[in-house]
From TrEMBL:
Keywords annotated in UniProt: Hydrolase
Key word Hydrolase present: yes
GO molecular function, one term: carboxylic ester hydrolase activity
Name of the protein in question: Peptidase S9 prolyl oligopeptidase catalytic domain-containing protein
Lipid metabolism is among the record's keywords: no
GO BP, one annotated term: proteolysis
Classification via Gene3D superfamilies: alpha/beta hydrolase
Family: Belongs to the AB hydrolase superfamily.
Pfam families on file: Peptidase_S9
Domain of life: Bacteria
Peptidase S9 prolyl oligopeptidase catalytic domain sequence ranges: 138-285
PANTHER family reported for this sequence: DIENELACTONE HYDROLASE DOMAIN-CONTAINING PROTEIN-RELATED (PTHR22946), POLYKETIDE TRANSFERASE AF380 (PTHR22946:SF9)
Amino acid sequence: MSEPETLTREGLRTLLGPVTTPGPLAAEVLDEVPCDGYVRRHVAYDVPSGRASAFVCVPDGLDGPAPLIFCHHQHAGQFDLGKSEVCGLRGSPDLAYAAELAQRGFVTIAPDAIGFEDRNWAGAANITWFELSSRLVVGRTLLADCLQEVSLALDHAVGLPEVDPDRIGFVGHSYGGRMAMWAPAWDGRIRASVSNCGCIPYRDSFTRDAGFQAELVVPGIAARYDVEDVLALSTGSQVLLIAAQDDRWSRGAAEIERRLQRKGVEHVRVHHVPGGHEFRQPERELAYDFLARGLTA
């Protein structure tokens, strides 16, 4: 039987392949550090591919459970850098959105994705193609495991007394921006998601200056589907795609917008900005305002 022309959530799970059933998270707090307006906790918990490592930033002075934002780090070929950049410890100050959101009253969680920072068993080497190929040969994908780990991070965070489990958002730049399109389709708990400079579709990736990121390689997907089919599934979420004019990873944004309109998809907005592959303050403020509106109780 051939696949349906319209992608469904069940069809997406089939396309991405199976994931291992997780066990108990067995979470522990490794340390806590007071910061400017929030406390940063280093936490660890079990996931099927190992032991997750994440920062959870909890705002000071909360008078009740707050919205939660999953903050996904970029790629940039910097495999020794993940959660630390979005929390402002290393890397670009413009990508410290987990810290900035915590200062605005959101609880944030920022794990290392598979192959980055604490999740890299080879230091700063690129192990993601190994992680991909070792799954493909047994009929699995790296993307499915990465998305499962998003859900497991949310499982940990929503169990915290500081978190309102009904107000969950997602934000990411570059690699994180790609995941911001997929995560709401995978996990229906996400009510608002912002993708910055990461919306390039498969059809525009067949060039040597773009190509395919290991985490996004899914056998057969581009023969029938593309990112707008994934975005159409996230009907319970408001999604903002921020696309920069001179950014190769924003290539194809206008066509995504047209195709979403033809599909009658109303929960996804595309915002075009000048500049290159960056997350400038004006775009971050746009993202934070969008998340705040989308997560209003």
